[in-house]
Amino acid sequence: MKTMSESWDTYEAFRDMVRRIACDKIEPLAVDLDKTGGPPDAQFEIFRENELLGLGLPEEYGGGGGDLMAQVIAVEEMARVCSASALTMTAAWGTLDPLVRFGSAELKQAIIPPVAAGELRTAWCITEPQGGTDMAGMTTRAVEQDDCWVLNGTKRFITNGSWAHWYLVVARLDEDFAIFMVNADDPGICFGPPEDKMGLRGSPTSDVIFDDCRIPLDRIVGDRSGGLARMGLSLTHSRPVIAGQALGVAQGALDQAASYVKERKSQGKLLARYQLIQEKIGDMAIRVESARALLYRAVDFAMRGDPQARSLASMAKAACSDAAMSVAVDAVQLHGGYGYLRGVPVERMMRDAKITQIYEGTNEIQRLIIAKALLSEGGQA
């Protein structure tokens, strides 16, 4: 896939292509994926065949070279039909961003090409049992011993858990933090049982445990210090992608609700003809489009390297996930009793929406980031 240009027509053509894949190939599998709990092997293969797994990775390493706007559009369209599949598609883009930015040429060459080709899967390991929001409180530790690093600690709620091949791990090193790449075949890495989740049931999640896990010295990503700052830069990139996932859920729920009220009758009249229903649909559409406008503004600032990108990414993440939750709940309400049944898309979308308010930094933390930026000396969000 060629690098996306700045032409909006190019983005819209790309959107149409992803939308066709989502509707034709991913949507028919969504109910069964949610029911069985994955892993999403068939979806992963579809993404591999359509060269989407490497979309957010550099062309020089076999990736698609898609910029942040292309990534957001892709996840938005995929999440309109299946949020768990969308997360599967995007996993490598965020996981490998620190490696792309700060890793050695040798480490990039060893890991990125097979991941971009869909031969290997990735996960990143930040959250720990005592909390995911307080990154500075992480206790997983790395110690240099002779010719290797030795890692000890537990990472919790890890997307792709035991399903991945490469793990990007943030660990305490000396008095600071560093980033490491750990392979599933390295001695001392093991995994907890799969989590039985409310939503995103088709996306594997489990603990990743390091028990005297030994990795080569050249698996460190960047310097021995400054790992949290480097992860902060990557989160400014990954939060808009998660916001795009949430926006896709919101749009999908709105799609389903609008379709349903145009077909369902009450007292001999289509629901869509009732003014109260029209008002609710209108409010849902406003929330979706407002969130989309903020997200695209955040992406524009991030792509230009503007200092406000970090707080705008937090705004977009909070706004899109809040919209996803509220719109999905309204969509269930408009479906009446049918919306409460398993197998009906809006019921799954409501469950899937909730996690977007929690992971990639809770929305409470996003609001603190925004407020601190506004109240700082510069006073700009």
Range of helix content: 40-55%
CATH-assigned fold name of the largest domain: Butyryl-CoA Dehydrogenase, subunit A, domain 3
Q: Total helix count?
A: 11
Taking strands numbered 1, 2, ... along the chain, how are they ordered across the largest sheet? Answer: 1-4-5-8
> Largest sheet, if any?
4 strands, mixed
Please give the number of β-strands. Answer: 10
User: Which second-level CATH architecture of the largest domain applies?
Assistant: Up-down Bundle
Question: Which whole number gives the mean pLDDT?
Answer: 95
What is the CATH superfamily classification of the largest domain? Butyryl-CoA Dehydrogenase, subunit A, domain 3
The separation of the N and C termini measures 35 Å
Whole-number count of domains: 3
Account of the 3D structure:
The chain folds into three domains: 109 residues, Butyryl-Coa Dehydrogenase, subunit A, domain 1; 103 residues, Butyryl-CoA Dehydrogenase, subunit A, domain 2, CATH 2.40.110.10; 148 residues, Butyryl-CoA Dehydrogenase, subunit A, domain 3 (Up-down Bundle), CATH 1.20.140.10. The strands form three sheets. A four-stranded mixed β-sheet has the order 1-4-5-8. A four-stranded antiparallel β-sheet has the order 2-3-7-6, with no helix packed on it. The protein has 381 residues and is an alpha+beta fold. It contains eleven helices and ten strands. Strand 9 and strand 10 form a beta hairpin. The chain is 52% helix and 15% strand. The N terminus is likely disordered. The protein is globular and about 80 Å long. It comes from Shimia aestuarii.
